[in-house]
Amino acid sequence: xxxxxxxxxxxxxxxxxxxxxxxxxxxxxxxxxxxxxxxxxxxxxxxxxxxxxxxxxxxxxxxxxxxxxxxxxxxxxxxxxxxxxxxxxxxxxxxxxxxxxxxxxxxxxxxxxxxxxxxxxxxxxxxxxxxxxxxxxxxxxxxxxxxxxxxxxxxxxxxxxxxxxxxxxxxxxxxxxxxxxxxxxxxxxxxxxxxxxxxxxxxxxxxxxxxxxxxxxxxxxxxxxxxxxxxxxxxxxxxxxxxxxxxxxxxxxxxxxxxxxxxxxxxxxxxxxxxxxxxxxxxxxxxxxxxxxxxxxxxxxxxxxxxxxxxxxxxxxxxxxxx
Length: 323
Prior knowledge:
The chain crosses the membrane at residues 299-320. One of its GO terms (cellular component) is endomembrane system. Keywords: Membrane, Transmembrane, Transmembrane helix, Transport. The protein is mainly alpha-helical. It has helices spanning 8-30, 44-73, 77-116, 122-154, 158-161, 166-186, 221-293, 296-319.
């Protein structure tokens, strides 16, 4: 009998495997709420805010990489391409800010229309005012963050301010590469197939100026402090934007619940009105049928007969002293 019973270890492994699958599904769905997730959340304003946050993060990293390259290699082709990409991202952020401004204007218009009514709904007015304040705060945060990114883009290292010649830098690099290739060809080969180092036994001295971290260099120390301060302000702005996105999401849920409740009330009212309209139609149908069946002369004769019967009944009651 024990041979037909399932193994407890196998049951535990299958249960654990199913639990892990559920956790992975939950994590994959929960990741959609992250600003790194590019799928639509169903809320257009939230999608715009998350896209703005992603664009700011990408631009900040690109500016940092561009400035490092300028310090090490000067204004080369890669730095120019990175600058073009940064300006493109800044234009994208400007477009996103304009789209967010449209939502702010739409909410302000809806609030003004609701206040113009003779009997405005106080609950709806309160929700619209709260939504307008949150969206306006989100828009102002986006504007301030955009200005910080623009200012950070204008902060260049001292190498960029010297205005180096691009052609001269590229020609110098090609000469250095050719010189290295010629040295490799002139070296004598060893028995193991390698080359003898021509500088063996010679003490070399590095007379170059610079290197290391930009924060430690005398020419770029102050500039890097300003850039670090701007970077910290951008991070704070991003944190405020993320918090604003969460508040707007909660407010949207609250407004959605209020709209659902109003829709249910409207549905009940519509059903009641439909029932009353159907009853009125039935009454009108019966009255019309009665009027078609009963002509005016027949109606007059029926009324006269009823009056005659009532008169006779009254006469006999009087004669028999009943009344």
